[in-house]
Amino acid sequence: MGQLFHTALYLPLLNLLVFFYNVIPGRDIGVAIIILTVLLRLLVWPLAKQSIVAQKQMSGLQPKLNALKEQYKNDKQALAAATMKLYKDEKMNPLSSCVPLLIQLPLLIVFYWVLRDVLNSKNLNELYPFVANPGSIKVLAFGFLDLLKPNYVLAVLAGGAQFWQAKMLPMARPIVKTEGSKDEDMTAMMNKQMVYMMPLMTVVIGFSLPGGLSLYWLITTLMTVFQQKIILRGTSAVSTTASPS
After folding, report:
1. Integer CA distances (angstroms), 52 to 106, 131, 240, in order
2. Which end of the chain has fewer CB atoms within 10 angstroms, the N or the C?
3. Angle between helical axes of 11-23 and 29-43 (0-180°, round to 10)
4. Strand partners, 5
């Protein structure tokens, strides 16, 4: 772990999680994880919005892209030029939906490290002076859930939530294919993998991870669904208002 990540991301998240653990009545680590997860999702709201809006815009461009592929199906160079012109005319960057996700990735990775260490009561000596050291972390959440051990129910719920989230995304909708083009087949296959394979991988990986990490993934995915509903509803309302009657 680089010193920059340790100082700028790891330590603040570690201290926040332990702080919430200290102030919550009964010192419930499960509640502390939920509170911090919600705060993190709110923190990255602007990035999530940018990514979701970009995916919806890309979905809206799909019919025009299909038409170009049909028009230039025998001329790949002309197709590439026409596609770039379409992106320029529509003021759309095809990578704009990926960049916000890549920016969020380091935060997610560091939070994984924090949860792993806190559940094992590690690195509590690195707490800030104003955050009390609890000595050890009680891994029993809600009075019955051991978050240090793998939890199959939480893993399945996390996978189900991810499936729900993926099905909501505009890019996960069926691709209208044009005759003679193979690109749509590849896109459709990638979309299907995103909708079905990623949730399945979440369940499989969750079976081997501490339950606290599955709880975090479940809550962050549910928050993402909530954000997507608000953002997509807002962009739909804007589109309806802007369209001629």
Report:
1. 19, 36, 18
2. C
3. 130
4. none
d(CA 151, CA 141): 12
Query: With contact defined as beta carbons under 8 Å apart, do 172 and 166 qualify?
Result: yes
Distance between CA 147 and CA 120 in Å, rounded? Answer: 10
Q: Mapping DSSP to helix (H, G, I), strand (E, B) and coil, where does residue 90 land?
A: coil
Q: Is-contact 24 32, C-beta < 8 A? A: yes
For residues 159 and 199, the answer to whether their CB atoms sit within 8 Å is yes
Angle, alpha carbons 114-115-118 (nearest 5°):
80
Tell me the two tokens of residue 55: 């995916």
Query: Is 160 strand, coil or helix?
Result: helix
Distances (CA, A) of 26 to 21, 23, 31, 32: 9, 9, 10, 11
Write down the domain spans for the chain: 3-237
For the beta carbon of residue 120, count every other beta carbon within 10 angstroms.
Answer: 13
DSSP state of 81: H
- The amino acid occupying position 180 is G
